[in-house]
Write a structure and sequence with these properties.
This protein is an alpha/beta fold. The chain has a domain at 3-158 and 187-214 and 271-280: Vaccinia Virus protein VP39 (Rossmann fold). Helix content is 42%, strand content 23%. It has a 7-stranded mixed beta sheet. Helix 2 (50-57) links the parallel strand 1 (38-42) and strand 2 (62-67). Helix 1 (3-31) crosses helix 9. The protein is globular. The structure holds S-adenosylmethionine. S-adenosylmethionine binds next to helix 1.
């Protein structure tokens, strides 16, 4: 990635974090990761979930975050060090979480021996946005020991623009997460069909479950900015711009002398969902 692209990813991840964090935490809690276990966070970005995963496995556990972008890996490492130092200064917090380390690598060829980890997790990376799920899934299953867990999660739907159904449909239909599917990908390769890929990969006890997030007015400042950032991140605009983009800006920013910004509407309510698919590596 270029420096600009890395900086944009960091801005977007931090911007959307107030919305995504509670849902990510709920998914991680639902995994019931064993205390003291060792896991891998595939496509860890700036490590927003790696620290939550480390809390989940407790002080005897360890988490390795892997990302293809060295710039993001550097930020993840710095954030973890700063968090560890802050926790140590504050007392209990640092002792409650397992060790976290980060490294650069490609999920298509994970740089680990077979069976290195007790579990592997990926949020909004493996198979997402449109991309090959089977290859990274096979790699995740390879580096997890027999009986261990592979879990892949991704953003799957949203209702962010209530009362503006045409724009909502445009956002939903061309959302950055699945636009490439509309153009060229077979339906069977859609992220929501992940359970089929898990079974084909030989994983056992495959389960899939959606986790919803929601926010309502009055929106705290961080959540308001997160929503605006998120819509910008999901919206796919053709070269040259579109009338829809103008309409979207007016809905979000309001019209002087006309409608106020949607996010200031006292009745505003938004919801969204992530889908988590998990399976067990055979051979235990
Ligand atoms: C939308 S971000 C999600 C980051 C993080 N999981 C989160 O939810 O905060 C997608 C991440 O996948 C990483 N990524 C993309 N392709 C990858 C690959 N082939 N191997 C490893 N990481 C990859 C990107 O660099 C980026 O950090």
């Amino acid at each position: 990635m270029t420096g600009d692209a890395t900086a944009q990813t960091i801005r977007q991840l931090l911007g959307a974090e107030p919305l995504r964090a509670p849902v990510a935490r709920a998914m991680i809690d639902a995994l019931g990761l064993p205390p003291g276990s060792a896991g891998l966070d595939v496509g860890c970005g700036i490590g927003l979930q790696a620290t939550v995963l480390a809390e989940a496995v407790g002080p005897a556990g360890r988490v390795t975050g892997l990302d293809i972008d060295p710039g993001l890996v550097a930020v993840a490492s710095a954030r973890a060090e700063a968090g560890g130092a802050a926790g140590a200064a504050g007392g209990d917090a640092a002792g409650a979480a397992g060790a976290v380390t980060f490294r650069t690598g490609d999920m298509g060829a994970l740089p680990f021996a077979d069976g290195t980890f007790d579990w592997a997790w990926s949020l909004d990376c493996a198979g997402y946005p449109a991309g090959d799920l089977a290859g990274p899934l096979a790699e995740m299953a390879r580096v997890v020991r027999p009986g261990g867990t592979v879990a892949i999660a991704g953003w799957t739907s949203q209702s962010l623009l209530p009362g503006h159904e045409a724009l909502e449909a445009r956002l939903e239909g061309t959302c950055s997460a699945y636009a490439p599917h509309l153009a060229a990908w077979p339906a069977a390769d859609h992220f929501d069909r992940a359970p089929d890929r898990f079974r084909e990969a030989g994983l056992r006890d495959v389960e899939t479950r959606a986790f919803a997030g929601e926010v309502r007015a009055p929106l705290p400042a961080g959540v308001r900015e997160a929503l605006a950032s998120l819509v910008g991140m999901l919206w796919v605009e053709p070269d040259g711009g579109s009338p829809d983009m103008v309409a979207l800006r007016e809905v979000l920013a309001g019209v002087p002398g006309g409608a106020p910004p949607l996010l200031d509407d006292p009745a505003y309510h938004a919801s969204f969902a992530c889908t988590l698919t998990r399976g067990t590596v055979p051979g235990a």
